[in-house]
Amino acid sequence: MVNLLDFDLDALTAWCETLGEKRFRAVQLFRWIHQKGARDFDQMSDLAKSLRAKLQGVAEIRPLPIASEQASADGTIKWLFDVGAGNAVEAVFIPEDDRGTLCISSQAGCAVGCRFCSTGHQGFSRNLTTGEILAQLWQAEHHLRQRLSVPAGERVITNVVMMGMGEPLQNYAALVPALKVMLDDHGYGLSRRRVTVSTSGVVPMIERLKADVPVALAVSLHAPDDALRDQLVPLNRKYPLRELFEACASYLEAAPRDFITFEYCMLDGVNDSPEQARQLIALVQGKAGAPRVPCKLNLIPFNPFPASGLHRSPRERVLAFAQVLQDAGIVTTIRKTRGDDIAAACGQLAGEVQDRTRAAERLTRPEVKVVRVHPAGPSAA
Question: pLDDT tens digits, residue range 356-372?
């Protein structure tokens, strides 16, 4: 059975042509699936009966089984979706007064292995298909419409962030069609400004995304220099900061926003000193050997988990760090922690996966070393 959630509109058109149908029929079918949330072809009243008959038995709209659903005291909802073979992924809906944001997973687990991320500590099983990525949006949108009694024509989900489990740019072939469905006026009709791909810095794929479907970009930075970032974000050893910033500067030529969002997880005694804030300023302003990148800094309170060996920076230190950045004219926000009572906050997503990467073994390393700068010169602490 062909899963129609696997297709963007062009691919669905090509598939419908194999059934002897024209493009306008594919558009009708696409709208029924994504705008109206229909699964039953008999519900699709403006499709020709002959097409409905052809679809029966050869195609389906395949949802993901929901293993669990949890609601936070702050209104955040987390779903655990079963993707088969012992693997599960998580998606999170975050309601706010002026928007509804869905955080979507792109992989079962993650192979990048960032030190502060519980998903990375559980390892990697496999990439999700386009249909599995889109099913998270399809199910959340249409489930919430019914639950909240939303009037016809109104959307619940206005923003999508590819910030769930996995590194989206390491699943590029499945990611791009999913993004196109999100943006398509016959699909979810989201603005490119309201769809964000978060990456730990897969430089070649940033360049491809710029050419293929440039949406808003968020980069997991977390350190102001290569030495520390090598420890926190292992991908930095392959694509160091200079290469990453060159790719970000180039991406802005096609991006829907005139800045890149840099995510910076605040780790107690690791990356949160005033001196490191000043190093970060030099980095983004192009004074540290990398190109200047117009940006917004999003400081994220660390959400501890036992295997990390790391701790959350005290609030007063986060505020002091932010003040140094703001005094330098850099737009800086401190992310409000949402859904941490149901482990739905940043860095906490960790559905069960069959680890192919021996993450537990790889991440059993000495504590992160911090380079502190003293008047007499740098020394390791």
Answer: 555 555 555 445 555 44
Residues 195, 255 contacting (CB under 8 angstroms) = no
Which pTM does this prediction carry?
0.90
Q: Which residues are catalytic?
A: 90, 346
pLDDT digits (tens, 9 = 90+) for 168-195: 999 999 999 999 999 999 999 999 999 9
